[in-house]
Amino acid sequence: MILCQQLGYAYRRGQPVLTDFSANFAPGLSLLVGYSGCGKSTLLKLIAGFLKPTGGEVLIDGCDPRDSQLRRNVIGFVFQQLNLLPLLSIRQNLLMAASLSSLSRADMVQSMATLLDELGLEPLAARRPIELSGGQQQRAAIARALVKRPAVLLLDEPTSGLDDLNTHIIIRQLERYAATGGTCLIATHDHRLDRLQHERIDFNRFLPVERHLETVAD
Amino acid sequence: MILTVFYLWKDIWRQWLTNPLSCCARIAIAGFLFGLALGLERYFVSVEGTLASELDAMGLNRIVLSQNLYGDKIGVLRGSLDGLIETFAPASGRHVYLRRMSQVAEVELLGRRPIYSYRDSQMSALQAIFPDIAQAGAYVCAADLQPGTRLSARIGEQQINLQVIRTGPSGLAALSATHYILIPDEWIAGLDEFGFTEIVIYQSAHNSPAALQTELAALGTLLRIEGFDEVNVRSGYTLLERLEHLRARHARWSLLAELFAGLLMVIVFASTGLLEYRQNAYLSALLQSMGVGRGLLSLRYLVENLILLTVSFLGACLVLAFVVAHYLPLEFENGLSLDALTRSFQAWSPLLLITAAASCVPIGFGLRRQIGSILQ
């Protein structure tokens, strides 16, 4: 359970991106939709503990997400720009994320094998990120986030710019994840993800009126 | 964890390969500073070693008085130093009176060598210094020749035979002479007309520094009262004082040199590390996002700094040893031996560690930056 209480964040003083945002995210899929710049990615980063709230708090099962233990075991994050480790192969990228978690060796091996297979990455596992296409990298990033079997999965625009086949593979994977009882938050513009069984949160309604107008004007 | 460490090591290696100038500049600057500090250290060690050897040869409880006599002074002051020490010397102490002639002897194999004359009456005191002397006669002191060897020598028009003896355990090192001739006073009649140096070697019965200091002070007072202003006094105790003074200076200067070198290295390493960290903040943030702690990431910079500092230090040791051995008239203790390097490294390792750790402090602050403001 993710609990956001009166959450606020401003990259610059006096220019809040998020103000008094409160919500509970139960296990299952939630789509965060809204205009660019409305604060979807910021919310994901706040939940992941990558940013320190300027107001309010985030709790994941009662714990502060900025605790590195939570990042290792509980939270999986897929960045908009993927951010795979460039010096490692795809298999090593997965192994690194898994080895930081508290998974047993056997679970780690099984989890990696399953994900590489399900996401069609097995033949590409020995390659480095730079040697893969955008869609393949996207799948690798999702595999890296899932390999430690996190209770919370946060994805920032996971299908933007992807073809239908890759999007389909990702949707299937997200459905599998949701079926395991995990909490998945996806910030997206992509209507193809509407096929997922999800709770939809229109982020535009949380914007202050003046920010709403600015965003629409942009 | 192993994979994370492996990745961090790979990242250090990649950084060195992609930016070798930065790595080489750090090694060169640190090596230069280490070289200066080690050079200073070696200089002190070398001077202390020379002084300690001199003290060892002189003996702590020995005092050597000397005065040059020439012209009118010969008639007035001849034997005065001997008389003075007779007055001064407590019953337990003993002394030897020698004269160094202004002329030299031409010795077979050894060439021109200084002449010292002694009095037959002081044989027992002389034998305490030169155990090889059995009876009054002409001798040549040479540590590198076989004792008992006979050599011929010429003093003016006079031809004499010399017997080689070893320099005694305490020897005449105080006279700063090697390969010198010892002959009885009677053999050099007329040779002292051109001037000579009177030398008294006084050996105190005391061995404690406090007693020797008192004795030396008393002798100084006596010399002043009797008007012996031109007498040169050298003593084991004075050498000991100089050695202790030198050791105190050594400790002070070493500390200053280490602090100075350490501070400059901290500035250079910290600023270079910080610049590189800014270029690589992305990677640090990425690893932090996966749950790698700031401690481990700081350790990456600590290890990198330690490697560079160690390479600089060992490089400086090797270069210094080479330069000293080939271009400077100083002794570099044990030269390039592994033992000498290990000892130096052990002595300097705390400084290396402190410098490496202090250089990581700014990076530690950098690692506190919010991950979300770096990663998109």
Pick out its properties.
heterodimer; A: alpha/beta; five-stranded parallel beta sheet; three-stranded antiparallel beta sheet; 8 strands; 36% helix; globular; B: 376 residues; alpha+beta; six-stranded mixed barrel; 9 strands; 17% strand; elongated
What's the short version?
Chain A has 218 residues and is of the alpha/beta class. Chain A is 36% helix and 24% strand.
What does this 3D model show about the protein?
The complex is a heterodimer of chains A (218) and B (376). The mean pLDDT of chain A is 86. In chain A, 36% of the residues lie in helices and 24% in strands. With 218 residues, chain A is of the alpha/beta class. Chain A has seven helices and eight strands, in the order βββαβαβαααβαββα. Chain A starts with a strand and ends with a helix. In chain A, the strands form two sheets. In chain A, strands 5-6-7-3-8 form a five-stranded parallel β-sheet, sandwiched between helices. In chain A, strands 2-1-4 form a three-stranded antiparallel β-sheet. In chain A, helix 3 (90-100) packs antiparallel against helix 4 (105-118), helix 3 (90-100) runs parallel beside helix 5 and helix 5 runs parallel beside helix 6 (164-179). With 376 residues, chain B is of the alpha+beta class. Chain B is built from eleven helices and nine strands. Chain B has helices spanning 2-18, 20-58, 72-77, 80-88, 123-129, 209-225, 236-279, 281-289, 294-327, 338-359, 361-366; strands at 62-69, 94-107, 111-118, 139-141, 150-155, 158-165, 180-184, 196-203, 232-235. A six-stranded mixed β-barrel of chain B has the order 2-3-7-4-6-5. The longest helix of chain B is centred in the C-terminal third of the chain and has 44 residues, at 236-279. Chain B is elongated and about 105 Å long. In chain B, 31% of the residues are buried. The mean pLDDT of chain B is 81. Chain A binds chain B through residues 11, 41-42, 45-46, 48, 50-52, 68-73, 77, 79-81, 83, 85, 87-88, 92, 95-97, 99-101, and chain B through 1-4, 7, 10-11, 14, 282-283, 286, 288-293, 370-373, 375-376.
